[in-house]
Amino acid sequence: MIQVERTDFVSVPVQDMERAKRFYRDTLGMQSSDWESGFPEIESGNVSIYLVDPTAWGGEFSPHGAAHIALRVPDVDEARARLEQVGIEFDGETLDSGVCHMAFFRDSEGNALMLHRRYAPVA
Predict the structure, then answer these.
(1) In sequence order, what are the residues at sequence separation of 6 or more whose Cβ sits closer than 8 angstroms to the Cβ of residue 90?
(2) What are the Cα distances from residue 49, in Å, to 77, 97, 119, 120?
(3) Alpha carbons 102 and 19: distance in angstroms, whole number
(4) Are 17 and 34 in contact (CB under 8 A)?
(5) What is the CATH number of domain 9-55+63-118?
(6) Is pLDDT of 2 > 90?
(7) Residue 66 or residue 61, greater confidence
(8) E strands present in 1-120
């Protein structure tokens, strides 16, 4: 058995690196200390998002389609409204699970994302 200390980053496949950088930097307002690198690592407060172009090492591009990356925001409805104002389309209505609010959308590369906010304590 191994000891996993934490998750350092989640790789997000991109097809157009410049377009993806603009999306995460300009549309979502996320921060990175290395936007100019070939594979920027975006700080998200706990787990970094690492933009990667799998074709750079002979792989194939395929976006994360079913498993959403949950981006915690202070207010899901407010964040959703701001993104909709700049043309981001959401998949359905904002969901209230009884413990959290979730709004599903995709990044510029087709990767599944969600705005998320837990409002009830973990049981």
Answers:
(1) 80, 83, 84, 103, 104, 105
(2) 23, 25, 24, 26
(3) 25
(4) no
(5) 3.10.180.10
(6) no
(7) 61
(8) 9-13, 31-32, 41-43, 48-52, 69-72, 95-96, 100-106, 112-118
Burial class of residue 24 (count of CB atoms within 10 Å of its CB; 0-12, 13-18, 19+)? buried
pLDDT tens for 63-120 read 988 899 999 999 999 999 999 999 999 999 999 999 999 999 999 999 999 999 999 8
Checking if the pLDDT of 20 tops 70, the result is: yes
**Token duo for residue 14:** 């991109």
Q: What is the pTM of this model?
A: 0.89
What does the alpha-carbon distance between residue 109 and residue 44 come to, in Å, rounded to a whole number? 19
Provide the 8-state DSSP code for 20: H
Between strands 69-72 and 95-96, the pairing is unpaired
